[in-house]
Amino acid sequence: MTLLLTVFAAVISTVIWYKNAPDDKMKVSALCWMFWGASIMWFVDAVFGYIELGAEFFRPSPADMLNDAYLGLSVIALALVIWVVILLIKDPKGSVRASLFGKKK
Amino acid sequence: MACFVVPAVEAVVTAAAAKIVKNNEKEALPVSEGENTGKSFKIPFSRKLRWLTNLLLGGSALLLFEHIWHGEVVPYFPFLTAASNPQDSVEMLHEMATAGVTMALLTTAIWGVMLLVAHIAEKRVNAAQSSEVNE
User: Fold this and answer.
1) ipTM of this predicted complex?
2) Interface contact flag, A37 B59, Cβ < 8 Å
3) pLDDT tens digit string along A58-87?
4) A82: number of Cβ within 10 Å
5) Domain containing B126: what range?
6) Are A43 and B106 within 8 A, CB to CB?
7) pLDDT digits (tens, 9 = 90+) for A3-33
8) Which of A25, B13, B43, B54 has the fewest other C-beta atoms within 10 Å?
9) Domain total for chain B?
């Protein structure tokens, strides 16, 4: 469930990035890197889980599924927070600097 | 247990390599920022290395959170709960050697595919440019 949610997040962020490419003022590429990197790594985790458990891997208990979904949503929230921090620090539009120093863009 | 440590270490190595390569290479303009100067376009290798660093770092950061979630990483020494007893340590090292190394290898392989696609794109841009010059 965590892998599934992360893959969906990776695809959505990639579509948003592609829509505005090559302009990356909103730093959506940071989200793409994070979600795709995590998706690849959780995919490997899933393959190892499948090797260990076999078909049982695809039949998680409802409690496990709920916890994994909760984790997946939390991971997406964390990635979004990291993205906002990157956006505010890099400040590609100069909005933060303009607000801090009271200058109009 | 600590599989994310392997790609995280690789990320640190590739980040350092990207810095060194950037210092060494001449400033070549990336395709998207390039101008039609008649020279062939090439994406700097330091930029390509940053792609790998971003993939590895981004993935490792989110996996670190997952390990904190599962109580496998703690904010006090020895930071990895499996490192507190020898039996769990062996299991952790085995997981790092199997899942961790596979994660790093698969990410690097996908980056390799990205390099191949970028190489083809560079060739196409250069071919289009040279045909424009010839016309």
Assistant:
1) 0.90
2) yes
3) 999 999 999 999 999 999 999 999 999 999
4) 17
5) 5-31+40-134
6) yes
7) 999 999 999 999 999 999 888 889 999 999 9
8) A25
9) 1
